[in-house]
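Quick start: what a row looks like.
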Amino acid sequence: MVDLSACQITSAGDLTRSLWRLLNLLMQPSIVLPVLAVMIAAPWVVRPRRWKRRISLAGILLLLLYGLGLSPLGVALGGESLARLIPRDSGQPADAIVILGRGGEFRPGRVQVAAELWQQQRAPLIFASGRGDAIEIGQMLEAAGVPAAAIDGEPCSATTNENALFTAALLQPGVRRLILVTDPPHMARSLLTFRSLGFEVTPHPSPVPNGIDDRNRRFLVLREWAGLIGYGIMGRYFARETEEPGFAVRG
Protein backbone atom coordinates (compact mmCIF):
# COMPACT_ATOMS: atom_id res chain seq x y z
CA MET A 1 0.00 0.00 0.00
CA VAL A 2 1.34 3.43 -0.93
CA ASP A 3 2.08 5.46 2.21
CA LEU A 4 -0.41 8.27 2.73
CA SER A 5 2.41 10.73 3.40
CA ALA A 6 3.71 10.16 -0.15
CA CYS A 7 0.51 11.48 -1.74
CA GLN A 8 0.54 14.84 -3.44
CA ILE A 9 -2.78 16.67 -3.17
CA THR A 10 -3.93 17.57 -6.67
CA SER A 11 -6.26 20.34 -7.80
CA ALA A 12 -8.38 17.77 -9.66
CA GLY A 13 -9.98 16.64 -6.42
CA ASP A 14 -10.88 20.23 -5.45
CA LEU A 15 -12.41 20.84 -8.89
CA THR A 16 -14.45 17.64 -8.68
CA ARG A 17 -15.74 18.53 -5.23
CA SER A 18 -16.74 21.99 -6.51
CA LEU A 19 -18.65 20.44 -9.41
CA TRP A 20 -20.47 18.03 -7.09
CA ARG A 21 -21.39 20.95 -4.79
CA LEU A 22 -22.87 22.73 -7.80
CA LEU A 23 -24.83 19.61 -8.71
CA ASN A 24 -26.01 19.37 -5.10
CA LEU A 25 -27.36 22.93 -5.36
CA LEU A 26 -29.15 22.06 -8.60
CA MET A 27 -30.92 19.25 -6.76
CA GLN A 28 -32.57 21.70 -4.36
CA PRO A 29 -35.98 22.70 -5.81
CA SER A 30 -36.17 25.70 -3.46
CA ILE A 31 -33.26 27.21 -5.41
CA VAL A 32 -33.90 25.96 -8.93
CA LEU A 33 -37.68 26.43 -9.23
CA PRO A 34 -37.67 30.21 -8.57
CA VAL A 35 -34.93 30.63 -11.19
CA LEU A 36 -36.94 28.68 -13.77
CA ALA A 37 -40.11 30.59 -12.85
CA VAL A 38 -38.32 33.88 -13.54
CA MET A 39 -36.99 32.47 -16.81
CA ILE A 40 -40.53 31.55 -17.89
CA ALA A 41 -42.32 34.72 -16.72
CA ALA A 42 -39.76 37.53 -17.08
CA PRO A 43 -39.78 37.74 -20.90
CA TRP A 44 -43.50 38.54 -20.81
CA VAL A 45 -43.17 41.61 -18.57
CA VAL A 46 -40.74 43.43 -20.86
CA ARG A 47 -41.41 45.07 -24.17
CA PRO A 48 -42.25 42.70 -27.03
CA ARG A 49 -39.23 40.85 -28.28
CA ARG A 50 -39.06 38.11 -30.87
CA TRP A 51 -36.96 35.97 -28.55
CA LYS A 52 -39.25 36.05 -25.51
CA ARG A 53 -41.27 33.03 -26.61
CA ARG A 54 -38.07 31.01 -27.09
CA ILE A 55 -36.74 31.89 -23.63
CA SER A 56 -40.06 31.13 -21.98
CA LEU A 57 -40.41 27.85 -23.88
CA ALA A 58 -36.84 26.87 -22.93
CA GLY A 59 -37.72 27.56 -19.29
CA ILE A 60 -40.83 25.36 -19.51
CA LEU A 61 -38.81 22.56 -21.13
CA LEU A 62 -36.12 22.79 -18.44
CA LEU A 63 -38.82 22.73 -15.76
CA LEU A 64 -40.31 19.54 -17.20
CA LEU A 65 -36.91 17.88 -17.50
CA TYR A 66 -35.98 18.97 -13.98
CA GLY A 67 -39.20 17.54 -12.58
CA LEU A 68 -38.66 14.25 -14.39
CA GLY A 69 -35.02 14.04 -13.31
CA LEU A 70 -35.90 14.37 -9.62
CA SER A 71 -38.98 12.15 -9.74
CA PRO A 72 -38.87 8.50 -8.61
CA LEU A 73 -39.61 7.48 -12.20
CA GLY A 74 -36.75 9.59 -13.54
CA VAL A 75 -34.29 8.24 -11.00
CA ALA A 76 -35.38 4.66 -11.70
CA LEU A 77 -35.06 5.13 -15.47
CA GLY A 78 -31.69 6.87 -15.09
CA GLY A 79 -30.31 4.14 -12.84
CA GLU A 80 -31.63 1.38 -15.08
CA SER A 81 -30.09 3.03 -18.14
CA LEU A 82 -26.70 3.22 -16.43
CA ALA A 83 -26.95 -0.43 -15.39
CA ARG A 84 -27.72 -1.49 -18.98
CA LEU A 85 -24.38 -0.02 -20.09
CA ILE A 86 -22.51 -2.59 -17.97
CA PRO A 87 -21.57 -5.93 -19.58
CA ARG A 88 -22.05 -9.09 -17.53
CA ASP A 89 -19.22 -10.64 -15.54
CA SER A 90 -18.09 -13.56 -17.71
CA GLY A 91 -16.44 -15.34 -14.79
CA GLN A 92 -12.98 -15.19 -16.32
CA PRO A 93 -9.93 -15.03 -14.03
CA ALA A 94 -7.96 -11.79 -13.79
CA ASP A 95 -4.63 -10.47 -12.58
CA ALA A 96 -6.17 -8.26 -9.88
CA ILE A 97 -9.42 -7.20 -8.27
CA VAL A 98 -9.66 -3.40 -8.05
CA ILE A 99 -12.00 -1.77 -5.51
CA LEU A 100 -12.82 1.90 -6.00
CA GLY A 101 -13.50 3.99 -2.92
CA ARG A 102 -16.84 5.75 -2.56
CA GLY A 103 -17.09 6.59 1.14
CA GLY A 104 -17.75 4.76 4.37
CA GLU A 105 -21.28 3.56 3.65
CA PHE A 106 -20.13 1.76 0.50
CA ARG A 107 -17.07 0.00 1.95
CA PRO A 108 -18.66 -3.05 3.64
CA GLY A 109 -20.48 -4.18 0.49
CA ARG A 110 -17.40 -3.71 -1.70
CA VAL A 111 -15.16 -5.52 0.73
CA GLN A 112 -17.58 -8.45 0.89
CA VAL A 113 -17.79 -8.67 -2.92
CA ALA A 114 -14.02 -8.46 -3.37
CA ALA A 115 -13.30 -10.99 -0.60
CA GLU A 116 -15.73 -13.45 -2.19
CA LEU A 117 -14.08 -13.00 -5.59
CA TRP A 118 -10.66 -13.62 -4.02
CA GLN A 119 -11.93 -16.73 -2.22
CA GLN A 120 -13.26 -17.98 -5.57
CA GLN A 121 -9.66 -17.58 -6.85
CA ARG A 122 -10.72 -15.12 -9.53
CA ALA A 123 -7.50 -13.12 -8.95
CA PRO A 124 -4.47 -13.35 -6.64
CA LEU A 125 -4.44 -9.65 -5.67
CA ILE A 126 -6.96 -7.11 -4.35
CA PHE A 127 -6.04 -3.47 -5.03
CA ALA A 128 -7.91 -0.67 -3.24
CA SER A 129 -7.96 2.80 -4.79
CA GLY A 130 -9.20 6.06 -3.33
CA ARG A 131 -8.30 8.87 -0.95
CA GLY A 132 -9.96 8.30 2.40
CA ASP A 133 -10.92 4.72 1.47
CA ALA A 134 -7.98 2.57 0.38
CA ILE A 135 -6.33 2.15 3.78
CA GLU A 136 -9.64 1.39 5.51
CA ILE A 137 -10.63 -1.07 2.77
CA GLY A 138 -7.29 -2.85 3.18
CA GLN A 139 -7.88 -3.21 6.91
CA MET A 140 -11.41 -4.50 6.35
CA LEU A 141 -10.16 -7.05 3.81
CA GLU A 142 -7.67 -8.41 6.36
CA ALA A 143 -10.47 -8.64 8.94
CA ALA A 144 -12.48 -10.59 6.34
CA GLY A 145 -9.69 -13.17 6.07
CA VAL A 146 -7.72 -11.95 3.05
CA PRO A 147 -3.97 -12.18 3.81
CA ALA A 148 -2.01 -8.92 3.85
CA ALA A 149 0.26 -10.24 1.09
CA ALA A 150 -2.75 -10.31 -1.27
CA ILE A 151 -3.75 -6.69 -0.56
CA ASP A 152 -2.32 -3.55 -2.15
CA GLY A 153 -3.55 -0.10 -3.02
CA GLU A 154 -3.12 3.64 -3.17
CA PRO A 155 -4.84 6.25 -0.94
CA CYS A 156 -3.97 9.22 -3.16
CA SER A 157 -6.62 9.38 -5.91
CA ALA A 158 -9.51 11.82 -5.49
CA THR A 159 -11.38 11.23 -8.77
CA THR A 160 -12.31 8.30 -10.98
CA ASN A 161 -9.73 9.45 -13.52
CA GLU A 162 -7.03 9.43 -10.83
CA ASN A 163 -8.24 5.99 -9.66
CA ALA A 164 -7.44 4.69 -13.13
CA LEU A 165 -4.21 6.65 -13.66
CA PHE A 166 -2.67 5.77 -10.29
CA THR A 167 -3.74 2.12 -10.51
CA ALA A 168 -2.11 1.89 -13.95
CA ALA A 169 1.07 3.56 -12.69
CA LEU A 170 1.40 0.99 -9.90
CA LEU A 171 0.18 -2.21 -11.54
CA GLN A 172 1.18 -1.99 -15.21
CA PRO A 173 2.79 -3.57 -17.15
CA GLY A 174 2.49 -6.75 -15.07
CA VAL A 175 -1.26 -6.45 -14.49
CA ARG A 176 -3.60 -6.09 -17.47
CA ARG A 177 -6.79 -8.00 -16.63
CA LEU A 178 -8.89 -6.46 -13.87
CA ILE A 179 -12.12 -7.26 -12.10
CA LEU A 180 -13.52 -3.84 -11.21
CA VAL A 181 -15.70 -3.44 -8.10
CA THR A 182 -17.84 -0.34 -7.65
CA ASP A 183 -21.56 0.48 -7.47
CA PRO A 184 -23.73 0.10 -10.60
CA PRO A 185 -24.24 3.83 -11.29
CA HIS A 186 -20.47 4.45 -11.10
CA MET A 187 -19.48 1.37 -13.09
CA ALA A 188 -19.99 2.57 -16.69
CA ARG A 189 -17.76 5.64 -16.28
CA SER A 190 -15.15 3.67 -14.33
CA LEU A 191 -15.09 0.82 -16.85
CA LEU A 192 -14.52 3.15 -19.82
CA THR A 193 -11.87 5.17 -17.96
CA PHE A 194 -9.84 2.10 -16.95
CA ARG A 195 -10.11 0.64 -20.46
CA SER A 196 -8.67 3.84 -21.92
CA LEU A 197 -5.41 3.08 -20.09
CA GLY A 198 -5.01 -0.38 -21.60
CA PHE A 199 -6.68 -2.54 -18.96
CA GLU A 200 -8.94 -5.45 -19.88
CA VAL A 201 -11.79 -4.87 -17.46
CA THR A 202 -14.45 -7.25 -16.16
CA PRO A 203 -17.12 -5.30 -14.24
CA HIS A 204 -18.49 -6.83 -11.04
CA PRO A 205 -20.86 -4.30 -9.41
CA SER A 206 -21.37 -4.12 -5.68
CA PRO A 207 -24.83 -3.06 -4.48
CA VAL A 208 -25.77 0.45 -3.45
CA PRO A 209 -26.21 0.33 0.36
CA ASN A 210 -29.78 0.03 1.59
CA GLY A 211 -29.14 2.89 4.01
CA ILE A 212 -28.81 5.44 1.19
CA ASP A 213 -31.92 7.64 1.29
CA ASP A 214 -33.94 8.71 -1.74
CA ARG A 215 -32.30 12.12 -2.02
CA ASN A 216 -28.79 10.65 -2.08
CA ARG A 217 -29.88 8.00 -4.58
CA ARG A 218 -31.10 10.78 -6.86
CA PHE A 219 -27.82 12.58 -6.42
CA LEU A 220 -25.89 9.39 -7.16
CA VAL A 221 -27.69 8.78 -10.46
CA LEU A 222 -27.64 12.40 -11.65
CA ARG A 223 -23.99 12.75 -10.67
CA GLU A 224 -23.02 9.71 -12.69
CA TRP A 225 -24.89 10.83 -15.78
CA ALA A 226 -23.14 14.19 -15.50
CA GLY A 227 -19.78 12.45 -14.95
CA LEU A 228 -20.31 9.99 -17.79
CA ILE A 229 -21.05 12.78 -20.27
CA GLY A 230 -18.34 15.06 -18.87
CA TYR A 231 -15.60 12.44 -19.10
CA GLY A 232 -16.67 11.75 -22.69
CA ILE A 233 -16.37 15.43 -23.59
CA MET A 234 -12.90 15.51 -22.02
CA GLY A 235 -11.81 12.51 -24.14
CA ARG A 236 -11.13 10.22 -21.21
CA TYR A 237 -12.53 7.15 -22.95
CA PHE A 238 -10.03 7.17 -25.81
CA ALA A 239 -6.77 5.16 -25.62
CA ARG A 240 -4.09 7.20 -23.82
CA GLU A 241 -0.81 6.94 -21.98
CA THR A 242 -0.43 6.67 -18.22
CA GLU A 243 0.50 10.01 -16.65
CA GLU A 244 2.85 10.66 -13.74
CA PRO A 245 1.05 9.79 -10.50
CA GLY A 246 0.82 11.95 -7.41
CA PHE A 247 3.36 9.85 -5.48
CA ALA A 248 6.63 7.98 -5.97
CA VAL A 249 5.99 4.77 -7.93
CA ARG A 250 7.74 1.70 -6.61
CA GLY A 251 10.35 0.06 -8.79
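That is the whole record. The chain has nine helices and five strands. The radius of gyration is 21 Å.
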